[in-house]
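tool_log.txt
---
The assistant was asked to compare two proteins side by side. It first ran the structure predictor on the initial sequence, then on the second. Raw inputs and outputs are pasted verbatim so the downstream comparison step can read them without reformatting.
(1)
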Amino acid sequence: MGEGRSALVLGATGQQGGAVARALDARGWVVRALVRDPQGRKAEALAAEGIELRHGDLADPNSIRAAMSGVEAVFSVQPSSGQGAAHGVSDEQEVVWGKTVADLAKASGVGHLVYSSVGAAGKGVTGMGHFDSKTEIEDHIRRLDLQYTIVRPSSFMEMLMLPGMGLDQGEFNFLMRPDQAMQVIAVDDIGKIVAAILNIPELYAGRTLEIAGDEVTGLDLQDALSRAARQPITYKRFPDSLLAENRFLGRLAELVDDGRCAGSADINALRQEFGDLMTLEAWLAGPGKPLLQNALLAPWRLWRFADLRR
């Protein structure tokens, strides 16, 4: 258990950071969260759980330095440039922010940095900035005299429940072919794994971990969603015409086909090391249930990667 050890969590009002903050808090850590708006609804919810809020911004290194002062560990995740122009984050900004956090962790004497990357990182140039930016940040971290661990989560189960994937029409449309496997992970399990790493940091120093909780084909998705929704759901890959028209989606599908976005985690080994991780079926029956209900009512529209909120 954390027994009063301290950690700074970036992105705590988002999915990954929030899961890490809760998992560390449950283990007895003193958790600080860097937040832009301490009066915001999500920030106030963190404070209500006993998490200490530190006002700051990734674009303000001084605020990050102040928030890091005296902590033993840092969890680093940045807004992804893949979230689209509406979110206002460029590839260049993501790289600068990721490198700055690592540099400040080294300068502040932080004992351990965990950086959350992405499964497609480190496997050659993808041509997609929001993946290649994370490879650049990973490489920078490895060059520092800093104790670190890099985690590369597979696709989030939460991502599958983005509104408008066709569930209201009895279909589910996604990236893999019906018989093609793709790994997924529940966001809560990212928090569980990161908390375990920070509890025994020396065991994970210098390691890069591919992490996932389950591996499913399109047909597995069809069966799991049909059971959870209690109605027939037919799985279909995004149509070839859409993949050809939308180069962004088309390239994502190509990266699933060549394996870089399909996931390469050793799930059995992860379960031995970190305990039970949620299968898709368990997630749909638990934390994913309300998300599924919302998705079943959401009208179809073009799936947009910009809807991902890492």
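(2)
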Amino acid sequence: MTYTALSQPVSSTISDVERDTGVAKETLRVWERRYAFPQPMRDPNGERIYPVEQVHKLRLVKRLIDLGFRPGKVIQYSTDQLQALTSTASGRGSCAGTPGPELQSYLDLCTSHQMETLRRKLSQALLMMGLKSFVIDLVAPLTTLIGEAWAGGQLATFEEHLYTESLTVMMRGAIFGMPQASASNIGAPRILLTTLPQERHGLGLLMAEAMCVAEGAQCISLGVQTPLPDIVEAARVQHVDIIALSFSVAMNPRQALDGLAELHARLNGAAELWAGGSNAALKRRRPSYVRVFELAEISAAIAEWRARQSAMLSPG
């Protein structure tokens, strides 16, 4: 069998760019008219196609917008300037380009496509660190580094997907290997984990599930992109105490806030809403009816939930 190598990087359609960057098609067209960027080429049918370099820049522009910048302020910058500004704005300063040697070694395995070695290295780290430390001290910062490398064009989309799939398989195995809380255990919260329909990224959700399971919670995962009526129905049928949602930086903040508001209204107080992730919606106009936690705060949040339940059940 003969394989023909692609001589040129594959350009993206406008639908590809929307899925890849989280920037809506309408917004891409407005920016093209208003700011003269992006500057797509046209295929034989007259449809827009975007070179790889422009997609890389759009990822960085989207990241800065999520950090609070206005498109008109940053869209004229070069990719290198955007990369530097992203590093500064996200609080990583001049050290952004030099991650610690341990994290860099994992990134190097991704870029050199040594996925079996990556899985072995991650498995060894899990055995040595334990699940909670593994998630907080290694997986969370490594996933951030992988995302930034992808946004900056250092990592191809397929390489980021290979990392995600490798980590997902390993994390799922670790979760299944944890002792599961019994349904009769009154002190264990029942937690439904999922994402809103517009959120397709699931690693944050998986990390949250690992932290909850490690604290003895009964976890029911629906995976990603669950329609709101199904979330509400699952919560009712499963008698859950908490619905935990994950929001990545890629999701539109307005959609995140609107989805949370609608879900809150549909639930009518039937379950607590917890949320986490790097989305700007959770940092700016945080809704009062949603409790927002970092991964490292989940243990304390579950302990506090148990204390509240105990107080409610105590006589007098």
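---
observation on (2): DSSP finds 13 helices and eight strands in the chain. Residues 131-151 form the longest helix (21 residues).
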